[in-house]
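re: ur question from yesterday

yeah so i grabbed the chain u mentioned. its 274 aa long if i counted rite. heres the sequnce exactly as i have it in my notes:
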Amino acid sequence: MIKKVLIIFILFLLILGGVGIYGALKFRDQIRQERLTAKAPQASVTFLEGWSNNNIADYLQKQGITSSADFLLSLKNFNTAAYQNILPKEADGSLEGFIFPDTYFIPQNPPAGRNIGDVIITKALDNFTQKITPQMLSQAQSQGMSLYQIITLASIIEKESGGNQDDRKMIAGVFYNRLKAGMSLESDATVSFAVGHSPITTADTQIDSPYNTYKYKGLPPGPICNPGLNSIMAALYPTASNYLYFLTVPQTGRAVFAQTYDEHLANKQKYLSH
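ran it thru and got these structure tokens back, copy pasting raw so excuse formatting
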């Protein structure tokens, strides 16, 4: 009886040892795979604030990463199920505004079953998700805005400010004032997005497009570019003022503000008539 129990105990130890060895080998293989992945050839890509998804697609093609057409197709077909917290129904599957401007390191040989476009999009959306804090979501609600509306407004601020950080919050304040007053935003940047060129003409401001904020009041249907964090923060925390108008001085890139239309016309005469 004692011998039988001893044999069973020895067998148990052998089985346990085998499991331990298997587990150790599996762990070793996992570490080895992670090291190989880390050493795999990678490419660095940098997306600038204010780039549209078309701009990013063209950039990736010039860098030899993927063709413009393939990246745009990846954007169109990307499965957004894991990102419903940041991509509401309003987005209607569009990722414009959510490919967060940053530098990304991507494997030159993507994992099996994934194309390079999907890898890039996943990294950008994960980055965006990390940047948007609960406090920012709460502030959006305080402004009476959804996250999608904030990103839409931020994208306009990004383009209208020309990347000038000092003007962004003041420009945001002007747009909030116009929205509250029931005025059209009259943003050249949204019209430029609609017609596909810049600068726009007077005729362009007459086109029938939901992105024509001269013709239609309120925010356009969605973002017109991928805004950076500074523009998003400007949309969340605008500078309060009585300004309803602004223009950008070509020579300096700085904005000049006005409370009345007459003041705005005077600014046009002073800064844009040369």
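noticed a couple things. The chain has a mean pLDDT of 86. also DSSP finds ten helices and four strands in the chain.
anyway ttyl
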